[in-house]
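Might you be able to check the backbone structure tokens below? Thank you kindly.
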Amino acid sequence: MVDPLETYPSGDTLTAVALDLPFDVVVWDDPVTLMVVVTRILMKVFGYQKTKAHRLMMTVHQEGRAVVWTGELNKAEQFCVRLHAQGLLATVEPSA
């Protein structure tokens, strides 16, 4: 784990630097939600076409997780809340 108070040579803290980085919204596999439901939720929340939503759902199913969106922290957190409201397991993490 990274120390959020770590100081860089510029004097910035990691927290200030990290907020400028892109963040990923990650959907995690669960044993309950049907694949067709996950596809529909991704279409509804992100406005994805069925083919893209299906591809992301298959990644979740086969790999256990999928990055479904990348961007600014505030919007990533909003998407995560919307996914939770639809019953999906989702997290926000710094983009690699």
In short: The chain has one domain: 21-94. Confidence is low (pLDDT under 50) at residues 1-8. The helical segments are 14-18, 35-46, 50-63, 73-85.
